[in-house]
Amino acid sequence: MILVTFLLAGFVKGVIGLGLPTVAVGLLATVMSPAQAAALLIVPSFVTNIWQLLAGPRSSALLRRLWPMMAAVAIGTVASAGLIAGTKGPGPASALGVALVAYAVTGLAGLAVRVPARAERWLSPAVGLATGLVTGATGVFVIPAVPYLQALGLDRDGLIQALGLSFTVSTVALAAGLAREGALPLAAGAASLATLAPALLGMAAGQWLRGRVSAPTFRRAFLVGLLLLGAHLALRPWL
């Protein structure tokens, strides 16, 4: 199941440029704790996001523009990693489900929000800190970072690289936070390395398919599936 999950997660990322941690942690949280799922995520997430970040010429410019947000992401993630690592029972999985539902609803709503340039100076750190807190609690990197980056008015290639930058920082910070909490044993690192091959294979297949199917249609289907998965995780303690 782990290998198939990362094959599917890599495929989704290859088609739409994001979704590997969301799909992987969301599916694996149905059979293991979110902390265990997040530990398996570290290596494939880092490698695929570095690949995504370096796939264009704007890495340095994006880093100069977004470094306050990235710093806040790192601080928030490391500070809150004890939530996903230390909480027992259904709480972390339910929190993950709520985060997935929020992300899916935001995406399906299709809200065309734009952030004024003058607001970036104070909004970027706030969004980064909120993203870090959600990451440390659930292992998912997307809320509210993805809607915020989409609202900056970046072109398609710039947005893909900005997402790669944000997810890379989140991955490294989550690994540091889990290690600090003793939730990233050597065996987990080896298992995470084993998930890299299916994730890369899925990502390559997704990139091949990207030019052959309607990306908006695929994204809508992905978000509907994510909404159902998130609702299942959020409501499971009461079912």
UniProtKB/TrEMBL annotation:
Family membership noted in the UniProt record: Belongs to the 4-toluene sulfonate uptake permease (TSUP) (TC 2.A.102) family.
Protein name: Probable membrane transporter protein
UniProt KW keywords: Cell membrane, Membrane, Transmembrane, Transmembrane helix, Transport
Subcellular localization(s) per the UniProt record: Cell membrane
UniProt cross-references to InterPro entries, sorted A to Z: TM_pro_TauE-like, TSUP
Keyword Transmembrane annotated: yes
Source organism superkingdom: Bacteria
Main location, first listed in the record: membrane
Keyword match Heme: no
Pfam families the record matches: TauE
Transmembrane regions: 33-54, 66-87, 93-113, 125-146, 158-179, 186-205, 217-235
A Gene Ontology term for the protein's cellular component: plasma membrane
UniProt topology in membrane: Multi-pass membrane protein
